[in-house]
Automatic annotation (TrEMBL):
CDD domains: PRAI. The keyword RNA-binding does not apply. The gene is trpF. This is N-(5'-phosphoribosyl)anthranilate isomerase. PANTHER family: N-(5'-PHOSPHORIBOSYL)ANTHRANILATE ISOMERASE (PTHR42894:SF1). It catalyses: N-(5-phospho-beta-D-ribosyl)anthranilate = 1-(2-carboxyphenylamino)-1-deoxy-D-ribulose 5-phosphate. Signal peptide: none annotated. InterPro entries: Aldolase_TIM, PRAI_dom, RibuloseP-bd_barrel, TrpF_fam. Pathway: Amino-acid biosynthesis; L-tryptophan biosynthesis; L-tryptophan from chorismate: step 3/5.
Length: 208
C-alpha cells in the first residue's frame, strides 16, 4: 500500500503556496511560460519559495524555453525540479543539474510506452490531456484507460483533476503522483483554499 504524492501547480501568490504546504502538498509548481495566465516573474518565484516551510519541492514549469532563458532563471530561483511541458526533445531537458519530469500530452492512438522510452533520464513522466494548440493547463481530463498499466517509471497524472474525480483517477491509473492547477482555482492563477484542501485530503485518503 502506498501513498500518492501531490503537486499544486500554477502558484502565483505566497498565501496559496502556504495553504498548499499546510494542507500537505509534496510540491508546488511555478509556471515560467509567459503566455500562461499563471506565469510568474523571477522575483515572484523567489518570494514564494522563500516563504515555504522545509520539505516542499519546488518545481519550475517550462514550455520550449531557450537554454539561455532557462539558465538565467535557474541562476536566480532555487528550483528543485524542472517540468518540461512543451515539445522539448530529450537533449533539451538535460544539462541543467536538476532532475526533470517530461510532460506528454495524451490522445487516443498514442503509443505512450514508446514516448516514455524516449526520455530514459527523466525522473518521472507527467501525463496531461492533449488539446490542439494548447501546451497544458487546459482543465480537461483525458481517457485514463489509455495509460498502460506498467510504464516502469514514476507517472505524474495531470489534466482536469479536482477533488471530485481524483480518487477515481488514482484508482484507475495508480500513479506515483497527481498534479492539479485549474481544478483548485477560484480564478486563473488564484487558488481556492477550500478546493486545495479538499483535493489534498482526497489524495491522502486514497491509497493504492
Ligand atoms: O498551468 C498552465 O497555465 C500551464 C501552461 C502551459 C503548460 C502547462 C500548464 N499547466 C500544467 O498543465 C497540467 C494540467 O493542468 P490542469 O489541472 O488541467 O489545469 C498540470 O501539470 C499543470 O501543471
Amino acid at each position: 500500500m502506498s501513498l500518492v504524492r501531490s503537486k499544486i501547480c500554477g502558484i502565483t501568490r505566497v498565501e496559496d503556496a502556504l495553504v498548499a504546504a499546510e494542507a500537505g502538498a509534496d510540491a508546488i509548481g511555478l509556471v515560467f511560460y509567459a503566455k500562461s495566465p499563471r506565469a510568474v516573474s523571477v522575483q515572484q518565484a523567489r518570494t514564494i519559495i522563500a516563504a515555504l516551510p522545509p520539505f516542499v519541492t519546488t518545481v519550475g514549469l517550462f514550455v520550449n524555453a531557450s537554454r539561455c532563458e532557462l539558465g538565467e532563471i535557474l541562476d536566480a530561483v532555487p528550483l528543485d525540479l524542472l517540468q518540461f511541458h512543451g515539445d522539448e526533445q530529450p537533449a533539451d531537458c538535460e544539462g541543467y543539474h536538476r532532475p526533470y519530469i517530461k510532460a506528454l500530452r495524451v490522445k487516443a492512438g498514442d503509443d505512450i510506452a514508446a514516448q516514455v522510452a524516449r526520455y530514459p533520464k527523466a525522473a518521472g513522466i507527467l501525463l496531461d490531456t492533449y488539446v490542439p494548440g494548447v501546451p497544458g493547463g487546459t482543465g480537461e481530463a483525458f481517457d485514463w484507460s489509455l495509460v498502460p498499466h506498467d510504464l516502469g517509471r514514476p507517472v505524474v497524472l495531470a489534466g482536469g483533476l479536482n477533488a471530485a474525480n481524483v480518487r477515481a483517477a488514482i484508482e484507475r491509473v495508480r500513479p506515483y503522483a497527481v498534479d492539479v492547477s485549474g481544478g483548485v482555482e477560484a480564478g486563473k492563477g488564484i487558488k481556492d483554499a477550500d478546493k486545495v484542501r479538499a483535493f489534498l485530503a482526497e489524495v491522502r485518503r486514497t491509497t493504492i
